[in-house]
Amino acid sequence: MRKKRVLVLTHEDLVPPDDIAGRPDAEVLEYKAEYDVVTGLRDLGHEVQPLGLYDDLTPLRGAIQNFKPHIVFNLLEEFRGEPMLDHHVVSYLELVQVPYTGCNPRGLMIARDKALSKMILHHHRIRVPRFAVVPAGRRVRRKSTRLEYPLIVKSQVRDASFGIAEASIVHNDEKLAERIEFMHAKVGTNLIVEQYVDGRELYVGVMGNTRLQILPVLELEMRRLRSDAPRIATEQVKWNTKFQKRRGVKLGPARDLAPEVERLLVKTTKRLYRLLQLSGYARVDFRLDSEGQPYFLEANPNPDIGYGEEFAEAAEAAGIEYEPLLDRLLAIGLRKD
After folding, report:
1. pLDDT tens across 38-82, in order?
2. Which entry of 63, 143, 170, 177 is 20 to 30 Å from 252 by CA?
């Protein structure tokens, strides 16, 4: 690819430094993906300008006028602290006709809403767990939902395992009420109460707009959890490196998948990617039950693109190294077919 001017769009607190030498791991982890992308693009020879936003688009307008980027590498996941507002920033890029990496505004809006995406896919006969929505500040009577225990309680719109812990899995009405009250206080959003599917946690990466490339299926393994602990991607599993080492958390290519299951995952991922009107790149999360049936959990448009994270690991399993992956995402953003 010819060298481009790339504006890397991030949260204002996550603009990475030019050098991370000597900085504490806990600090670097906060902006690791942003640092990896900026550094990788510069190593490829692109002219890169990071830009942090919070609640004002004026800096973005100024950067577009002055830097004149060929493309925006979009790493922004919220606006004014709200995950459901990030698609408006992408809509602005559409209005001023600046290409960008990742998902279009409509796909972002649909996929961010776990309940809406599940309703769409259920309508099209894609297997999803039964669920109910609990609006912020409300309570729910489990009997009225026709759900059966165990259930899992999570935010309807927040991602990155925010608020998910072992206690998210509940087995009776008392614990359900406690968890709903706790989560409303913690995240302040509507909640989704969902039938818990016990089984393997699988991730399927996909790139493209109309012509799609499916990456090798990855599996999240937790080899040293307690025998009675639920095997779910909690905040600890996702972000706590000490916990990951202690509990044998490992991400790698899914082993011993039956060929027909793998074919079904590929077919289902392509179908739901289009039904949810996604574009650019995404990671789709499934649970595979004991009978080999995949259940859609959620679609993650613009997933963590940091080196060594799920999407980059899947690309590497497909023979795509990290820097060529960044170039591939730029090419997809510049080409909307």
Report:
1. 999 999 999 999 999 999 999 999 999 999 999 999 999 999 988
2. 170
Distance CA 51, CA 59 (A): 8
Residue of 276, 285, 123 lying closest to 218 (CA atoms): 285
Neighbour-count burial of 55, counting CB atoms closer than 10 A to its CB (0-12 exposed, 13-18 middle, 19+ buried) = exposed
d(CA 179, CA 64): 45
- What is the pLDDT at residue 69? 98
Structure tokens at 104: 């279009």
Domains in the chain, number: 3
Nearest to 48 by CA among 18, 27, 92: 18
Task: Give me 148's structure tokens.
Answer: 């059966």
pLDDT in tens, 285-318: 999 998 999 999 999 999 999 998 999 999 999 9
Dihedral angle sign, alpha carbons of residues 333, 321, 160, 205: positive
Give SS3 for 289: coil
314-332: burial string, b at 16+ Cβ within 10 Å, e else = bbbbeebebeebbbbbbeb
User: Is the residue at 122 inside a domain?
Assistant: no
Task: Please give the structure tokens belonging to residue 44.
Answer: 């490829």
Which of 9, 213, 142 has the alpha carbon at shortest distance from 131? 142
Establish if 119 belongs to a structural domain: no
Say what the pLDDT of residue 151 is: 93
Query: Residues 265, 220: contact at Cβ < 8 Å?
Result: no
Query: What is the extent of the structural domain holding 92?
Result: 5-100
